[in-house]
Amino acid sequence: MLQEIVDWLLYSAIGLDSSARLAETLNYVIYDTIKILFLLFIMVFIAAFLRSYLPQEKMKKWLSKKRYGLENLLASVFGAITPFCSCSSIPLFIGFIRSGVPLGVTFSFLVTSPMVNEYLVVLMLGFFGWKITSAYVASGIVIGVFSGMILGRMRLEKHLVKGVALKEGGCAQKFSSVQERFGFGLNESLCMIKKLWIWLIVGVGIGALIHNFVPQQAIEAVVSKTGIFTVPIVVLLGVPMYGSCAAIVPIAVALFQKGIPIGTALAFMMAISGLSFPEAVMLRGVMKLKMILIFFAIVTAGIILTGYLFNFLQGILL
After folding, report:
1. pTM summary value
2. Domains of the chain, residue spans
């Protein structure tokens, strides 16, 4: 129905030529932007409402217990349900460290939080479908779990900036009624829309331009020239970049539609969302450079392996 309304608006009311590339691009942008904003609002509201029942202090106690990697899994899942980018997840990461949560467990949260979250899932469901989305979510959590376990065993606490782990984190927000929780969910949705709408439009716009104007032969030529090294190359290119998932997902979709394998496109998206120079700069305030480099290297390796795995399983996922 939405597609019919957009078609009528552009081709009947305004009178654009439906066969023109510019009109197709505009149709792509309007339709996908409206669809994703609506889904985004609904899903963030539901996730925030449910998250308001999560006891933060108990969560910290659970994460501090050693249970053969289960605490890393719990931290990764918690990261997956928090709507943070790589930079905005750092304050909570610091809060966990200050409250005594093991360093490896906090890294599991820091890795997964920007890679997997409710609004990214909404975007991917709208563009890729449930199979690829489910595989992406599972891989993001797995990368977080194993990266945290590896980093935890390396005993890197000595590379934290002195004094970081001495203070207690902030208090959790408390709710006394369902109405307050409802209001919290509504406020989270509105704040997320305000934060992401411009990124969403930019991302959908870039995706539309790639979809309608970049020749498929050009994309295929780039992939064919780099061969087996395509995945690490796109990951290394993605790390210096920084952007919202609202902007990244549509670009990954457009690249995939132009012939780039699904694992390569998703690895590029993971690198941009999960690792960035701004994040490294912020982390420098709480940890030494050696620790940041080790963290980035392990996560980058995990993303590259995931990209190769997804390329291998592309026939099953599609």
Report:
1. 0.67
2. 60-166+199-317
Exposure of 29 in the CB half-sphere (CA atoms within 13 A): 22
Residue range 231-259, pLDDT digits in tens:
998 888 777 666 566 667 777 887 787 77
Least confident of 71-80, 114-123, 294-303: 114-123
What HEC string does the chain produce? Answer: CHHHHHHHHHHHHCCCCCCCHHHHHHHHHHHHHHHHHHHHHHHHHHHHHHHCCCCHHHHHHHHCCCCCCHHHHHHHHHHHCCCCCCCCCHHHHHHHHHCCCCHHHHHHHHHHHHHCCHHHHHHHHHHCCHHHHHHHHHHHHHHHHHHHHHHHHCCCHHHECCCHHHCCCCCCCCCCCHHHHHHHHHHHHHHHHHHHHHHHHHHHHHHHHHHHHCCHHHHHHHHHHHHHHHHHHHHHHHCCCCCCHHHHHHHHHHHHHCCCCHHHHHHHHHHHHHCCHHHHHHHCCCECHHHHHHHHHHHHHHHHHHHHHHHHCHHHHC
